[in-house]
UniProtKB/TrEMBL annotation:
Gene3D superfamilies: GroEL-like equatorial domain (1.10.560.10), TCP-1-like chaperonin intermediate domain (3.30.260.10)
GO molecular-function terms, A-Z: ATP binding; ATP-dependent protein folding chaperone
An individual GO BP term: protein refolding
Source organism per UniProt: Candidatus Bacteroides merdigallinarum
Protein name according to UniProt: 60 kDa chaperonin
Family the entry assigns: Belongs to the chaperonin (HSP60) family.
Keywords for the protein's UniProt record, in alphabetical order: ATP-binding, Chaperone, Nucleotide-binding
InterPro entries: Chaperone_TCP-1 (IPR017998), Cpn60/GroEL (IPR001844), Cpn60/GroEL/TCP-1 (IPR002423), GROEL-like_equatorial_sf (IPR027413), TCP-1-like_intermed_sf (IPR027410)
Signal peptide: none
Amino acid sequence: MAKKIIYGEDARKALLAGVNQLADTVKITLGPKGRNVVLDKKFGAPLITNDGVTIAKEVELEDPFENMGAQLVKEVATKTNDVAGDGTTTATLLAQALVREGMKNVTAGANPMVLRKGVQKATEVAVDAIEKNSHKVSGTKDIARVAAVSSSSDEIGQLIADAMEKVTSCRASIRSSWTAVAVTRIQVPPSAMPHSSILGLAFIWAKTGLTLPVWRYSLPSYRSTAPKGRTRG
């Protein structure tokens, strides 16, 4: 199959057009007062959502070069969702801004490779600044606020916060040939489920690297003696 190839400013314009079409569709959902988007489905009713990555996955543009730009931003949203589970709309908005400003500098004569290195250094500085000014989530109220924004429901946010409050982290050392692990104890209300249904379930979050001694145990031995007058067959 023949391939159409474009270069220079024409290629940049096509990619930027695709980036803008996808990002403009996704970014209207940003924030707690973001708008919803209606997605057509081949089967079933249309889907109404404000989830950035869900919207991005549905975008397919007719022009192949513009579609390549859209797919690049879609990859940003997908990877953000895989790593953080949220923030896909913000990641899409930032990607659009980076591409737009980068295109301006390249058109003005900047070297793309040098520009890339500058973006990477600026990213490191920005991440450090965000970490210093970040607010650590602590307490049920903070968890409820974050969950409410992600779920678009105060009620669901409170349910998630209440569920997380039931989970208590503790540290335990296990005397075995395994390494010491972080153990999470889950408090299960008696009415929730039979305790036997969760026996044997274990989550290993992290290893400390400390090897502990092997358990030593012995089992009693039993000797079977046949009654007199009978032989064992």
